Each structure stands twice: as C-alpha cells, then as structure tokens.
C-alpha cells in the first residue's frame, strides 16, 4: 500500500487528506494525520501538493507525433493530401512503435492516465501502452468508402478480437473513421458487434462540411441520422468534434446517452469554428475532452485543452464565464470516465487508482484558494510530479 497526500480535488469536492492505494483501487480516503494507523509503505506528496483523478484524454492519435509541425498553415485538404496521407502510407510497424511511445509518454507525463486512441497499426500502439503502464482504449481505424489499405475493415475486426479481454490496461474499441468514409452496411456490422460485446464505438463526427454534405447526398441524412439508422446511436457511442452538427443532432445524442468529445484546439486551428459548449452541457449531453493529434494541435497536454475549452466557450456562448472551471475539470475526469465506462474520475473508495500528484509549490498556484480555477487556467503538464495508473506509479518526474 502507498498513499498520496495533499489537497484532494475531484469534481465533487476539495478537501485535505490522504488517498491510500491498495492493488489497483483506492482503498480509503483519510485525514493525513491518520496515515500511521494504516501501515503504508510509501507516502508521496504533502503540503503544497494537489491530488487529482487521472485526466482522461478522450480522443488521441498518439503516433501522429511523427507529423508535429509539418504542413503548418496549409489548408486542411492540402495538409491531408500533401503531408499526412503520403507519409501514413509509408508507416512501418517499427516506426509506429517508436512514435506511439513518444506520444504516449508525452500524454502520461502531462497527467493523462487514460487515452482513447484511434489509428492504424493498433496492435503496436496497444503493446507500447501496456509496456508503459498507461490505460488505453485503442481502435484500429476502419474505412470502406475510401481506398486506404491501412484501414481495412478486416484488420479492425481482427484487432478487436485479439485484444478483447486480453489486458488489464488495454481495451479495444471499434473505430470507424467517419460517417462519410464508412458505409452504412459496415456501420451496421459494427453496431451489431458493439451490442454483442459492449464495445465502445469511437468515430469522427461531422468534423468537416464535406462530411456532412457527402452523407446528405448519399443517404439524405445528417451524420447523426446515419448513426441512428445504423443502430449506433446509444450510450456506447463516442463521437468526436461535432462542429457541423445542428441543435437537433445534439439533442438526439443527449437523449441516446452518447458522448461528444470536444477538441477545441484542433477545431479552431483546422476549421476556425467549434461547438457551443454551454448549450451542449445544458442539454445534458455527456462531454469529454481530447487533445486530438499532436499535428495539428502541437500538444498532448490535457491542462491546455481544459484552458482552451473554457476560453473558447465564452466566444461561442457570447458571454464571459460561460462554463465554470469546475465543469471543465469534470469533463476531463468524470466526463471521460463515463464515456469509456470506467469507475474512475473521483477520489472515492472503490474507484480505480488512476491518480495524479501535482506540485503546487509554484508562483502560478498562489494564492492556493480557488483550486478549480488554478487547475484549469494556471496549471500545465509540467506541474505533474507523479502519475499512478491502475495502482502503480507509471511515471515520476526525475528528482
């Protein structure tokens, strides 16, 4: 057993205390003065430390760290056609392993205890995640409306079956690329497999005008309407971006219990627009946060994404303080946990011991009073000192 000591912060409360970890769960939360009664082996933290639930990076492409900074300032279409797709076609398994490790290490050291990744060569990414000790939901990207050999549906199904119930840390998902690159027939197959197994379905959703117009042309439906016709509109669905959905689409997602992953840095950089976050939360839609790809966003730091989400929310709502810092922090913790079906995101007995220790002995944490605001608008990944995943220290800042 070991303990993390400091100011304990989750979406529900802020209190001083100690979190005692045994096996892979939080055994108990006690006042720091009572630690001696529990016989813990190690104590981490203390005064001027924050203990938070692990941040959940609900949409990533970690291996795309390889492309960071390339094609900067090109229009999205040119960026994909001239930079990304040609380089992706040359991927080798060795390169994927190397760059997935770079991306996963970056996510981990910045406080992400869980990533939800969507990419090619998913086997290699899964092996790296397991070795590094990060919790990972991983889907092999599939497409059948676009000729792209790396995204064959057969490989997507094979990956899912190979990794189902295989690992304590890696959970396979079903990963159709987008509503315009995957046929209705394949969507229905994925829906059936999801119903049979409980698998999450992770999909880019209305991320461009071209996607929306193509789905309308083929089926006379919106992207959400297509997912509903395929049988995918339910609590297992994790849609990403949604920047070209309308109010009716968001209402349908909320009623179905689905999740939307908000990636404001990526949205604004690539499309110069994003969702009205305040409106989505008012609908009762579960919203999680994701960094998306290190290219184009440049980062795998969930603190930066929380901050960006809060600032951009004011612009889309047309008013200041549209989404309080506490709600933003909740999206990065309990929102992600709900999306992935994890008993995580809170500092409570019986919850997964996915925790982050933050050194708050820094000028930008003074005064240490409104902790939610400090975590969202002042903290950064470099403040993370230890990351615990599944009850084990997965990363610690060198002393």
TrEMBL record:
Domain Amidohydrolase-related: 50-393
Keyword tags: Hydrolase
Keyword Hydrolase assigned: yes
Pfam families: Amidohydro_1
GO molecular function: hydrolase activity, acting on carbon-nitrogen (but not peptide) bonds
Name under which the protein is recorded: Cytosine deaminase-related metal-dependent hydrolase
Lineage start: Archaea, Methanobacteriati, Methanobacteriota, Thermococci, Thermococcales
